[in-house]
Amino acid sequence: MSAPVPPSSATDPLLGAVLDGGYRVLEKLGRGGMGTVYRAEARHPDGTTHHVAVKVLLDELLADAAQRERFEREARALFGLEHPNILAVHDFGFLEGSPYLVMELLDGQSLGEYAEEHPPDPETALTIARQILAGLAYAHAQGALHRDLKTENVFVARMADGSLVAKLLDFGLVKFVDDDRWGSGRVLTTFGEVFGTPAYMSPEQCTGAPVDARADVYSMGVVLYELLTGRWPFMAESRGEMLRAHLMEPPPPLAEARHGLRARPELEGLVQTALAKDKGDRFADAGAMLAALDAVPRPAAFVTAETPSVAPPSMPAPPKKVPGAAVNALLVALGLLLLLALAGSAALAFYLSR
């Protein structure tokens, strides 16, 4: 049974509207940097229905040619990337000039929200990371770079059987490196332009240099570090300080970022390789990083007790108190001994006087 359709509203005229493809907009789910996402009902020729997600480009971005093209390139990317760990797109169209995407509707939350509410143990973190890498490796193999990989752009979906599946989404900064497959299109970024999210940006992104699959590998290294430790490898109070850290500072070892975390040298080496400053020292692409992760012996990491037990400082033992009954018994015994001694002395004197 379909959900009731909210009435159309002056503040959001899309509520209750029917898009060209026959998708009836039911409710607003949220708003991101490029678009607003709605729950909609898709009706099939046989009369059955199912719910989908509809992402519509923000009104304020309609006049921005670059943003419109990025939105449309995301549609092209998701249409051409069919993988269990990449968000599926069913349709694409325009509503009164506004482009929209029709996507699978997922039950779950972003990886950032999930990790904050349910901090994963190391093995769960590695399972999620492997799923992200599988989707990213597929995209790289198809000639598509993400360029804005972060925990907020990964969705943790709860499937019907209760299992969790990580899905890559938000390909708004996608770069196609296979012109034969995707077409050349218009260049959306130029040398010297800084794009991405500071906490996850590769050194080359920080300086606006050209990027390839190894920039996504670096961002994936940050995501993996965050999943394992609960924090970014570099913490800074400003954008400038964060960019400088990516360019200059070595990432702290995993064990220093989370108390009690013990990681195999192979896992530590994998993270350090992904986060190498020189992209020539990183994995060539997500496929190579995935192969390295699969080669790490299990268990790859574990966490000891988060709070070590601390013994209280030693104090000098107080003097033992002798119970009163014991004192009385001692006095009686001493008295008897004294009487016996006196009696013995008297007997000896009597014997000698004879």
Q: Overview of this structure, please?
A:
- The chain is of the alpha+beta class and 354 residues long.
- The chain has 2 domains: 23-104, 2-Layer Sandwich (Phosphorylase Kinase, domain 1); 108-184 and 192-303, Transferase(Phosphotransferase), domain 1 (Orthogonal Bundle), CATH 1.10.510.10.
- It contains 11 helices and 12 strands.
- The protein has a 5-stranded antiparallel beta sheet, covered by helices on one side.
- Strand 4 (89-95) and strand 5 (98-104) form a beta hairpin.
- Helix 3 packs antiparallel against helix 6 and helix 3 (122-141) runs antiparallel to helix 10 (286-295).
- The protein is globular and about 55 Å long.
- Residues 1-9, 176-194, 307-328 and 345-354 have low confidence and may be disordered.
Helical/strand content category: alpha+beta
SSE order, as H and E?
EEEHEEEHHEEEEHHHHHEHHEH
The end-to-end distance, rounded to whole angstroms, is: 128 Å
Poorly predicted sequence stretches spanning 5 or more consecutive residues:
1-9, 176-194, 307-328, 345-354
Query: What does the main sheet amount to?
Result: 5 strands, antiparallel
What is the mean pLDDT?
A: 80
What is the CATH homologous superfamily assignment of the largest domain? Answer: Transferase(Phosphotransferase) domain 1
**Which geometry do the CA atoms define?**
globular
Strand order of the largest sheet: 1-2-3-5-4
Q: Gyration radius, to the nearest Å?
A: 35 Å
Number of helices, where a helix is a run of at least 4 consecutive DSSP H or I residues = 11
Strand content: 15-25%
Share of helix, binned: 25-40%
> What top-tier CATH class of the largest domain fits best?
Mainly Alpha
What name does CATH use for the topology of the largest domain?
Answer: Transferase(Phosphotransferase), domain 1
Number of strands: 12
